[in-house]
Amino acid sequence: MMDERFTHGNSLLHKLSAKVKLVVAVFFVAVIAVSQSFTAVTAGLVLAAALFMTARLDLSPAMKRLAGANFFTIFLWITLPLTYGEQTTAVGPLQLSLDGLRLAALITLKTNTILLSLMALLSTSSVANIGHALKALHISDRLSFLLLFSYRYIFVIHQEYLRLTRAARLRCFVPGTNLHTYRTVGYLFGMTLVKSWNRSSRIHQAMLLRGFDGKLIPMDQQAMTYRDIVFLLVALTATGSLILLQLL
Amino acid sequence: MLQLREVSYTYPMAKEPILSNLSFTVEDKKAGIIGPNGCGKTTLLHMMVGLIKPDKGELLFHGRPVTTKQDLRTLRKEVGFLFQSSDDQLFSPTVLEDVAFGPLNLGFSPGEAREIAVRTLEDLGLSGFEERITHRLSGGEKKLVALATILAMRPRILLLDEPTNNLDPKTTSRLIEILQDLDLYQIIISHDWDFLSHTTSVLYMIDHGHIHRCQKDHIHVHRHVHAAGDHPHTHNL
C-alpha cells in the first residue's frame, strides 16, 4: 500500500519546503491540464523530466507507476481514432481520425508530464509535511485533518478489514456468485465501517484527554529559506512561459 | 484528589447497571483493579476522566465537583490515561509530533513542546524514536510511545487500562521498571496478576457494580492446582 518510498532522499527537491512544492505543483498541473498546444505540453514534459531527474528517484518503481497510468491511455489510443473528429485517413480497412490520434497523443503527453512532476514535487515530501503545508497555506483545517487522519488510519482500517476476511476464510468461506457471498461481503464492509467508526470515537476521546480543542498546532513551522524562494521564482517563471508558448 | 461519589451507570439498552452506587477515591499511590471481563473496570476509568457521565452521583477533583468544560480541562491536565489500544492513542504521523501534541495543547510554544517531547522520550529510553512513523512501530514500542505522550503532559495521576495486553515478556518487564520508577498516583486495570503484584500495593475488585478493596495476601496464584490457576481470586468472596 502507501509506503512513501520516494519520501526519503537527499536531493534538492527533498530539501525544499513542502509549501513551495505544493504551490508549484498546483500551478504547473493546472497549466498542463488545460493546455491545448503540443509545443507547450512538450516543453512541460521536458521541465517535468528535469524535475524528476533532480529528485533522483528510483527509476524502476517510478516507471511502474507511469506504466500503470499509461495502461489507461491505451484505451484512448484504441477508441479516440475511431470515434472522435471529422478528418479521417484510411489505414488498411480502417478509417482513422487524425483529430482522434492527435487528442490521444496530447492526453498521453499530459498524463506523463503531470505524473512525473507530481512524483518529483509531491512524493518527495511526507504526507505529514504536505498536511502541514496545506495548513500553512490556509487551506481549510478540515481538509488537512482529513488528509492526515486518512493517511494515519488507512493502514489500521485495512488491517481490520484483512483480519475480518481472514476470519471468514478460516471458516471456509469461498467467494462465489451467490447471495451468501454478497451477504458476507456486505457484512465485512459493514463491520469494517462500524469498527472504523468506533475507533474514530476512541481516537477523539484520546485527543480530548490530551487537551485537544479543535485545533492542531503544527510543531514544525518549516521556515522558507533563500533556496525555497529561488526555486519558487524559477518554477513559476518556467510555468508562466508555458502559458506564453500556448498563446503564441 | 480524584474521587467518584456514589456513582451509578447503566449503558443504553443494558438491563442492569454496570456500576451501582459505587464510591472510589484515589488515595493509595499505586492501586490495581481486577475483575472479570465486562464488569465495568474500563467504564470506571472513563468516568474518572469525564468521558462517561454518571447517571447518578458525581466526580470530584480536589474536593470540587467537575461540571464545566473548564473543570474537565483542569482535570485532564493532571490525570493521564493510557488506552488499551495504542493505535487509538497515537494519531500523529511521527513519534515526536505525537508526544508534543499534549504540551502544544497545554499552551507550550513549539520549541518548548519539542524539548519536552525529546526529554520524555529520553527518560523512557526511547531516544532516536523522534522521527519514526507511529504506525510502523511494533506493538511494544507503540505502548511505550503512548505512555510517553501522556507523561509529556506531566500528570499527577496515571490511569492505565490493561497496559500489558499483547506485550511480550521483555516489554512487560520494561513497563514494570518504568512504572515502579514513576512517582505518580497510578491506577492500573489488568488481568495480569504477576504484573499487578509488581506494580501496585493495593488491589480493588469490581463485582456486580460494586468495588471492594482486597486484602492482598488473600489473593494468590496456585499454579499447581488448576489450569486457570494464573487467574487471581480471593477466598473471602
Automatic annotation (TrEMBL), chain A:
Subcellular location, principal: membrane
Membrane topology: Multi-pass membrane protein
InterPro entries xref list: ABC/ECF_trnsptr_transmembrane, ECF_CbiQ, ECF_transporter_component
GO BP: any one term: cobalt ion transport
Keyword Zinc included in the entry's annotation: no
GO cellular component, one term: ATP-binding cassette (ABC) transporter complex
Keyword Cell membrane in record: yes
Pfam annotation, one family: CbiQ
Residues that span the membrane, as ranges: 20-53, 65-84, 104-122, 229-247
Keywords: Cell membrane, Membrane, Transmembrane, Transmembrane helix
Compartments where located: Cell membrane
Protein name: Cobalt/nickel transport system permease protein
Organism expressing this protein natively: Desulforhopalus singaporensis
UniProt lineage: Bacteria, Pseudomonadati, Thermodesulfobacteriota, Desulfobulbia, Desulfobulbales
UniProtKB/TrEMBL annotation, chain B:
Ranges where the ABC transporter domain occurs: 2-233
Entry-linked InterPro entries: AAA+_ATPase (IPR003593), ABC_transporter-like_ATP-bd (IPR003439), ABC_transporter-like_CS (IPR017871), ABC_transpr_CbiO/EcfA_su (IPR015856), ECF_ABC_transporter_ATP-bd (IPR050095), P-loop_NTPase (IPR027417)
GO molecular function terms attached to this record: ATP binding; ATP hydrolysis activity; ATPase-coupled transmembrane transporter activity
CDD domains membership: ABC_cobalt_CbiO_domain1
Alphabetized UniProt keyword annotations: ATP-binding, Nucleotide-binding, Transport
Superkingdom of this protein's organism: Bacteria
A GO CC term attached to the entry: ATP-binding cassette (ABC) transporter complex
Pfam families, A to Z: ABC_tran
Gene3D superfamilies found in the cross-reference section: P-loop containing nucleotide triphosphate hydrolases (3.40.50.300)
Cited PANTHER family: ENERGY-COUPLING FACTOR TRANSPORTER ATP-BINDING PROTEIN ECFA1 (PTHR43553:SF24), HEAVY METAL TRANSPORTER (PTHR43553)
Family membership noted in the UniProt record: Belongs to the ABC transporter superfamily.
Protein's recorded name: Cobalt/nickel transport system ATP-binding protein
Taxonomic placement: Bacteria, Pseudomonadati, Thermodesulfobacteriota, Desulfobulbia, Desulfobulbales
